[in-house]
Amino acid sequence: MRKLHLTLRRLVLLGGALILLFLGYAWLRQRPQDLPWTDLDLAQPVGLFTGRKLAALTNDAPRCKALLDRAGVDHVAMKPGGADQCAYADAVRLRPEAGAITLAPASVAPSCPVVAAFKLWEWQVVQPAAQRIYGQPVRTIRHFGSYSCRRMYGRSQGDYSEHATADAIDIAAFVLKDGRQISVLNDWKGQGKDAAFLRAARDGACDLFSTVLSPDYNAAHRDHFHLDQAERGATGWRACR
Question: Which residues form the Extensin-like C-terminal domain (predicted)?
């Protein structure tokens, strides 16, 4: 009798596990962005593997540009430039679009994977946070540039920065629709709306970029967010500070 009870108990537990597995699979099928083997779609919400898929675009410029086209992102592909450790071949420049955030200066041309992540950041993170906190959208994002042929931290030796291949952009400030500016340098500290917005923007970027560095990282980033799409992000090795 005891063996029968144990058998029945195991069958009940197994049945419960199978039901949970089925329900979990059914839920995941409704969220392809949470599965590692599904294709990236910029129209979908941010999922568990969105960041990895974005980083994987570093070695697939045609696919990246096709994703931008499919999402309706108005852009122009730039000619390859640079040389050796500072060569780039997938830079794109965003064209002004009605209702979209503009970059200032507008001439910046990051790599396609950075632009793809930037647009998702705009749609899924920055604008929702601005509407929630300020009741209005962001009109412009000011930056310190993307491409720069240099090593990390400006050193004379060591690894090259992701800026050397246009795989990074440094974000300095956000300008709201009414003209109000929220800057990383002046508004990061504190407990008010501006600090809350900047932290929401930083935290949301961590799901989309391989590396996100803010004033919490070191003094060199006291006035900007460093966002990059290093190849290592495709394997899940990410940095968020």
Answer: 63-241
Hey, where are the domains in the chain? 1-30, 39-240
Tokens 């200032």 belong to 104
State the chain's mean pLDDT as an integer: 90
Helix (H, G, I), strand (E, B) or coil at 205: helix
d(CA 120, CA 106): 18
- For residue 223 the two structure tokens come to 């006035």
User: Can you read off the two tokens belonging to residue 239?
Assistant: 């940095």
> Residue 177: which of 101, 71, 237 has the closest Cα?
101
* Structural tokens at position 201: 């923007």
Q: Which residues pair with 76 in a beta bridge?
A: 93
In degrees, to the nearest 5, what angle opens at C-alpha 40 toward C-alphas 224 and 87? 55
One-letter identity of residue 197: F
Digit-coded pLDDT (tens) for 187-217 = 999 889 999 999 999 999 999 999 999 999 9
Cis status of the peptide bond prior to 105, with omega within 30 of 0: yes
The CA dihedral of 236, 158, 219, 167, to the nearest 10 degrees, is: -50
pLDDT of residue 122: 98
- CB proximity list for 107: less than 8 A, separation 6 or greater: 93
Q: pTM for the full model?
A: 0.88
